[in-house]
Design a protein that fits this description.
Number of strands: 5
Number of helices: 21
Largest sheet: 5 strands, antiparallel
Helix content: 55-70%
Structural class: mainly alpha
Amino acid sequence: RLVVTGPGVFSVTSRDAIKSQVTLLSILSVALIAALLLLVYRSFSALALGFLPVISGALAGVAAVSLGFGVVHGITLGFGTALIGEAVDYSIYLFVQSEQDGADQQNWIQRFWPTVRLGVLTSIFGFASLLLSGFPGLAQLGLYAIAGLIVAAAVTRFVLPHLLPQNFRIHDVSPIGLVLSRLVQRAAALRWPAAAVLLIACVILFINRDHLWNNKISSLSPVSQADLVLDASLRADMGAPDVRYLVVVSGANQEAVLHSAEQVSTVLQTQVDQGELAGFESPSRYLPSIATQRARQASLPAATELETRLAQAVQGLPVRAQLFKPFVDDVAIASKQPLLQASDLEKTSMAMAVDALLIRQEQHWRALLPLTAAQGVDINASRIRAALSATGLPNVLFVDLKAESDRLYSGYLHEAILLSLGGLVAIVGLLLWVFRSPLRVLRIIAPLAAAVITVTAGLALFGQQMIILHLVGLLLVVAVGSNYALFFDRPDQSLEHNISPRTLASMLFANLTTVAGFGLLAFSKVSILQAMGVTVAPGVILALIYSAIFAHHADA
């Protein structure tokens, strides 16, 4: 049987895994949400129209990312599943919150649209922070979310009401709303237990403060552990270089780089002899520098001298010197042969090695020298660096790709955390500018912060370290939960400052669709998709519950 491994295989496998998971989960989430909405609406026309903002938002997100970045990453498309969970909320609010008699959408626009619009703005302010990230994937997610939510909300506000047929009606959900209303009136009794849960969550976060985040780039890899073990096993069997460690030699031209690579190879061979390395590769092994080739030709003896040496060597042996005549002729030809050029290696296996190890970028050249660690022993990076530094060769760099990748990812993660905090500050600033009341803003932010703290503590409690996609999930919790908090903080004057049952029902259905969309992601085999699922699904549930518990009107 044939077993294949290596970075190329991992790349194809990862792409196929993400693509298949995104496709499967998107289909399942759409089907689940459609079934849920059909159960609520009891109307196929309402179901079809309800998905119009979602489809419009997804297309707008893909178009915006394509224009902004030129390419759409697979994880960005996976985020389309997430968008379904939030964008469909807007049509739910329109259909459920509209009055049943005549379905007065204009009345909904006057009474509820300002609240929905503010919720969209808070989401935009939160995701806008991702646009500043140096991590392309995060920047794409931010642009996708912003463009998608703007278009989805605009379609709900300006297009959907005009497409609804006359006497448009959905199934009466008032009984569900009345049950929810009674539950919400009792929610204030849970404030002290909720405060105790938050206190415990804060203690858990404090205890695990040094282990909350996984700053290893391997945490983002969809490659299975079995594939990694197979790769390590095959490399050990073949004595192939470890793709983690390599020496990079830079120069202005090919000859300079090959000459420096030969000098570095001498140093590395010493490390091999001392047992520090099992081996290494170098382009100079297949394409020596011109200077080395000339030196080798110059070292070849003349035909007469070589014949004399051979005659002396075979004295007393049952071998005739004339048998080596072809060898003498070959040496004579080699001493005058044209020097080997890269073009001479074309259509050979050595050409592949040279092309992989010798890289030209405009007027700059680099030689890559991958290193192979000894069996069962890690390469001592500091010792290799010291040996290379002792040569005094310029433009020679020892690279630990894993360490550098982890450092780069850790920087992106730290940047993303700071940007997310900046997005939170921007949301607070927006709410202060709109309401001009710090106390009211605190009431809106409190349930969102409580949901984020509780979910983060839950992940820590179950031993799951957070990656950068968990952070995106927390942003989504804030984005989706802001709608709940704003609705609970919005007194309905027609109901004596109590939130209307229809509004409560709309929030419950919106919450269920979001959980349906993200809950499936929690079962994904791709870590980056799974991270958003396990964060957002419980997070939005907690955001709704905390919004009801800490709502101002719960005291009424």
